[in-house]
Amino acid sequence: MKFSNVILAASASSLVLAAPKSKTKRTSAFQWFGANESGAEFGNQNIPGTLGTDYTWPDTSTIQTLRNAGMNIFRVPFLMERLVPNQMTGSPDPTYLADLKSTVNFITGTGAYAVVDPHNYGRYYNNIITSTSDFAAFWTTVASQFASNPRVIFDTNNEYNNMDQTLVLNLNQAAINAIRAAGATSQYIFAEGNSWTGAWTWTSVNDNMKQLTDPSNKLVYEMHQYLDSDGSGTSDQCVNSTIGYDRIVSATQWLQANGKVAFLGEFAGGSNSVCEAAVTGMLDYMEQNSDVWLGAEWWAAGPWWGNYIYSMEPPSGIAYQNYLSILEPYFPGGSYSGGTGSGSGSTTTTATTTTTKVPPTSTTSSASSTGTGVAQHWGQCGGQGWTGPTTCVSPYTCQELNPYYYQCL
Ligand SMILES: *[C@@H]1O[C@H](CO)[C@@H](O)[C@H](O)[C@H]1NC(C)=O
Ligand SMILES: CC(=O)N[C@H]1CO[C@H](CO)[C@@H](O)[C@@H]1O
Q1: Which of 109, 341, 345, 357 could bridge across to 362 with cysteines, CB 3.0–4.6 Å?
Q2: Catalytic site residue 159?
């Protein structure tokens, strides 16, 4: 999402009641689930800008809170111009680099993955990056700093858009080659596509991205998907309760047809029942296709979000209050047990394990929950492959949201 598009929609009723915790305890099919940790990319009209005024770094204590809840991946956006000023072939700014490393090392020190995200939309000082060799030089610099940390993930760039399609392909390939040549051979690389890397337009825009090659075979396509009418992630209203599923089906089929895997690097929804159904419908469909979907990341946490409609920042972000308990069942390391009805997302279930699924061989499906009985409000109650309860606790009824997901509403 473009920061300039963000609507700080402070809702008068800012703390809507959290949805009851209702999902039954089960194992997530995802390898990763987490949040963007926004801050260091703020103030992009002020380069380099001043720490504490124009930008900030994520708060490690709130990252720890989300980590304790079971999240195991955090995306750290930053600006290329602040890290490597003046020219992409230049040297890193020592202070900004040290702060980036400190944030990344904190995250990976908890056992989670840190996504190093140049939040630049394929641009450097507002000009589209056209030199693959300069871009490769930038990635040589960055990757060499993190080459020895296996829990770092390199995200080539945030949301390429309005660029030549072959250029987007070539920039990604240049980044991959540079990262591997810098000695970072064990880490995952996330490649983003054109048109803001949207899942809903992936097949029509980014088909050529299947040509990317990675000598380490740890390439993951990062897609983003918002559920408001224009897909920009600027409204707390979702199109309808199935829009999450609707918008990722074609990309899912593309991944399967081409033997690729993906990560949903940005998604969110407003704190209301339509969006909650759309979000859970999308995530359930992704889990059922976990051969190609490795996980997802909420947009966004970060200390400066205030009343932002999607803020996942503990303790008072509206999404933290409303969505954490809804998302917890999808956390890979979590031991979510649900059912306490205690409301806000204050549950802390310490995650100590990390799965090690390697793409693209996983065939895990979460749709095989055993069990009979009655599903709770918001719980899944049907859908292709579902073997769990199909009746709902009174007064809720089981409603088909899509062929893969029926929910007690
Ligand atoms: C939701 O909106 C999408 C896009 O307009 C549409 O294709 C889909 O059928 C809608 N779903 C429902 C349940 O109305
Ligand atoms: C999922 C998510 O929140 N992604 C965001 C990560 O941070 C960048 C920088 O602000 C945003 O542009 C992304 O939308």
Answers
A1: 357
A2: yes
